[in-house]
Structures are given as structure tokens and as C-alpha cells.
Here is the input.
Amino acid sequence: MRVIIYIRVSTKLQEQKFSLAGQESELTKYAESQGWIIVNIYQDVDSGGKLDKAGLNALLDDVEEGKVDVVLVADQDRLSRLDTVEWEYLKDILRTNNVKIAEPGRITDLSNEDDVFYSDLKNLIAQREKKTIVRRMMRGKKQRMREGKGFGMAPLGYKFDKTTKKYVLDEEWNWVIPFIDKLYLEEQLGMMAIANRLNEISRTPSGRFWNEKLISDRLTSKAFHGVMEKRFSTGEIIVIEDAYPPLRTKETYDLIQLEREKRGTIYKVTSRAKLDLHYLRRTTFTCGLCGRKILLVQHGTAKTPRYYLKHGRKLKIADRSVCDISINTIRFDKNISKLFTEILDSESLASKYFQFENNEQKIEQLKESIESLSKAIHKNEIKLDRLLELYLDGEFDKSTLVKRQTKIKEENESLTNEHTQLSKKLKLMQNNEFNYELIYDLFSSLKNFEIDYTPGERAKIFGHLFPKGILYPDELILISEISGVPLEIGVVIDKDPYPGHASKKV
Here is the structure.
């Protein structure tokens, strides 16, 4: 009989401890004692739960080419700890090509029902053993983390000191993270541009070229401000603070995540288009019609880009129409520029956008609104107390209680936020602090906005002043904040000079 010997261990550690060489020696002697012809010997250092392994794939190629009559393994679990679907696939290839599975002292013929039953039973046992091993490993890892001890491969810029049993800085690579942070935050480079800059200096420690994914992973990892965080299959999350010497501060990490969120509001449509730093890119917009997020989308070419505020996809709204709002920024760019010019030019022009007269009538109206909100908040608090009483009296179950409590608490949170904002606004008006001087100071950084600043600086300034906005078909609402009070400015949207462009598919 023609035989292929297949040997496997799960890890490099097992390769040393349990020896591929030992399996090979034992199986070679057994094959020779049976008078079999050894066609090939294949090996893998990988999990038995994976079908796609180099050695196993080569073995199956030989099987399908008719080169073998039997596959010899130390134990069937060396060949497979596969799940049911993949195990059936493997068996089918062997059965179709009349190839048997052999262990020292036993041959399994996959065309024989009794042998198949025995083989399936062994595979199920092997799967169960694998799960047991994984559970034990996870229990050990969890306990290690609960004791404040980390485990796993050291992140870029660190190495594990076997003497102290701690992660320490790797002097050869600890420059990379600060370098990435500087390019991302200070120079406003994108992830591909950062990867290109790194590739000019060095490849990764493993010899790979840097790419966007590698940069993104390092921008979002908590490890570099010292935190080891592991999520286990049970859903449990264990965190070790100060597991690594920090390569960035927690404040820098938070700035990076905020920057990523801001940059996430822009969407590049074509790979040919070179992304320009549009001044709206750091403002988060929502749709005034359906409340969904609005993206800043780039069409056109690198030389002649066109920008649209629009949805990523269409959505049916209450009246069964399609929410397909799409506004070319050219329709309001000049109006925003005019708005800044007029606000900073004089109080009389700024009065077109803000009402500075703090007369008694407006103050009284504001007081009434605040009083009304206070009553609504108090009423909801009474409802919460009453709900608990009804639950204790057995009027409804706990899930109903939680559902109703959640709804009232969410409503109260919204009311409380509005109450706080109006109270701050009232204080400004009563002290005559809401005036042109205050507005001028707020928007003074916008003076010569289009001349004195780079595109990246314009995006930063605009996003700081107007972190949020609401888009309607005929008006853009820019939302700023002054002394904790939201300040809304309406910008008129003109007719589309290029009506055909808006209909193009993204």
C-alpha cells in the first residue's frame, strides 16, 4: 500500500516539547513494518480545528491525484479536530478517492459504516477535547489578568522581559507610535500617507510594508497609553492599567479618537479623486428630514472635486417617500463666507443672524419655558415613583417596568439638558452678556478665513466653532455653543447650478 504520513502539533512550543520528529520516527517504523511504500511525509504546526493548512492541503492534492492508498497518523485527532461540516468535507475527499485513515494498530475504511461511525465518534471526542483545552487556557489567562499579569505578544514598541516578567520599551521600535501620532494630529496626514512616510524609513519589524490597516490598528489601540484590554468569548472584558510603559498619553489617545470621528464624516467616492481638506470635514451633520447621519461626499477628479452633503444610502421615511437629500456645497459656500464677513463687519449686519436686545418680554418668555420644563421633569419623577409602586403591587412584570422606566428616564434626560441650556441663556440675558462683543470674540478666528489658513487649518477652526449641523433641502443649520448655550445659525441653500450631478450614483 502507498502511504502518506501526516504529523501535526498545534504550536511551536509543542513542536519542541512533543516533537514532530518523534511522530515521524514512530510512524515511519510502523509503515515499514507493514511493508507499505512511503510516498510523502507532510507536517503542520497549526490547530487541528483548521482545515486550511499547508501540509494538509498538499496531502489532499496527492489524494485527488491518486498517489496514495492510506493516510497514516499517530492519532486521528492529528488529522482532524474539525467541526462537522469540514470533517464531512475531508472524509468525502478521502472516501471518493478510496483512501483509508490509519493509526498504528488500526485502519479505518470510510466506505464501511461501522468504521465511519467509529471515526465520527473520535472526531466528536477530539472536538470536545479541543474545547476543553481552550476553556482551560482561557481560565488560566483570565486568572492571570485578574492578578494584574499580562500575556500575549508584545505590541509594537515593546518587548517582554523574561527576568522581570513585565513588558518594557523596545528601544529599536519605540519611536514609531509618537511618529504616527505627530503625522496624524499635527501634520493632518491620512493613514495611507503615514504608511508611505514610514515605508521611506523602514518596514515593519516582521519585514512587511506599512499599510492603512496597520496604521489604523495603532491609532485605535489602548496599549500605547498602557492599557491591556482583553474580551473573552463569554463577553467578559478584563482590563489591566499600566500593563505597558506609555508611548502616548491618554489625552493624546482621546484626541486621536475624536479626530478619527471627525474625519469619518467625509466619504471618498472614487479612488482617482485626491481627498482635499474641505472645511466642513470636521463638522458632524444630521438630516433634518429623517435624523440620520449626513456624509460629506467627494465626486469629480483631483483637479476639479465636487463635494456633496448626502446620505450614504436611501431610506424610506414616515410618508413612504425616499429620504435622498443631496446638496452640492457650492450652493451654500458663498453664503457661509458672506455670513462670516457680515458678522465680523458690524453689529447691525450681525443682527440679521442674532437678536441682541434682551428686553423684558423675551426674558419672561424664557422664564416661562424654564418653569414649564421644571414641571415636566417633576411630573416624570412622580411617574417613576408610581411605576415602582405598581410593579410592587404586581400590576406588571419586571421587563415592563424596566422598559417604561427607560423611556421616562430618556425623556427626562432630554428635558434636563434643555432646562440647563435655557437657564444658562437666561443668565446671559439677565446680565446683558449676550451682546455683539461676545459674538465677535467667538467668531474672530474666522476673519480672513479663506486667505490666512491652509485647508487643514480651516477644517480645524470651522469644526471647533461648529461641531454639529443639521441639513434641510433649503437651509443648513450650523450649531455653535457660547457659555454652554447652543447657538444656531441658519444658512440659505441656493438652487443647484449642476442639477444633473446630484443624481449620479455613489
